[in-house]
Design goal:
The protein is α+β, with helices and mostly antiparallel strands and 125 residues long. It has one domain. It is 30% helix and 30% strand. The protein has a 5-stranded antiparallel beta sheet with strand order 6-5-4-3-7. A hairpin with a 5-residue loop joins strand 1 and strand 2. Helix 1 packs across helix 2. Bound molecules: zinc ion.
């Protein structure tokens, strides 16, 4: 395996944004929400690799507030490669996730339909 490949601690190679799953978490308030970034390996013991936090502005537009990968995932890769390279690649993954993977229209629709739904989470990618 190449030293430039990001890997989940469970062993799954993560070559880009399409190797992540997303899970939208409904919040009690309608002011925003959270999207969990999930490993695609069904048997992953870590599962959650990071998250995106967003809020809804007064024009009903989604504003991304924060995006982050969790320390165990980052540290795992930083010790395999080096920290600088890991941070650089993961930053690119995070940007790609927000720009290419998250279906913001679907998230917005989910927020608007929240009252009719009983389930509190939904797989969106
Ligand atoms: Zn995993």
């Amino acid at each position: 395996m190449s030293e430039n490949t990001i890997q989940c601690p469970c062993g799954k190679s993560i070559n880009g944004y399409s190797d992540y799953s997303l899970l939208y978490l409904k919040k009690d308030s309608d002011e925003g929400g959270e999207i969990d970034i999930i490993c695609k390996n069904d048997y992953c013991y870590l599962r959650e690799l990071g998250y995106l936090k967003f809020r809804i502005d007064t024009n009903r537009k989604i504003i991304l507030e924060k995006g982050k990968f969790y320390a165990p995932y980052v540290t795992w890769n930083a010790t395999r490669m080096n920290e600088e390279k890991t941070v650089e690649i993961l930053r690119k993954h995070l940007i790609d996730i927000t720009e290419k993977l998250v279906q913001w229209e679907k998230v917005m629709k989910g927020i608007e339909m929240d009252e009719e739904r009983s389930s509190s989470e939904e797989v969106i990618a």
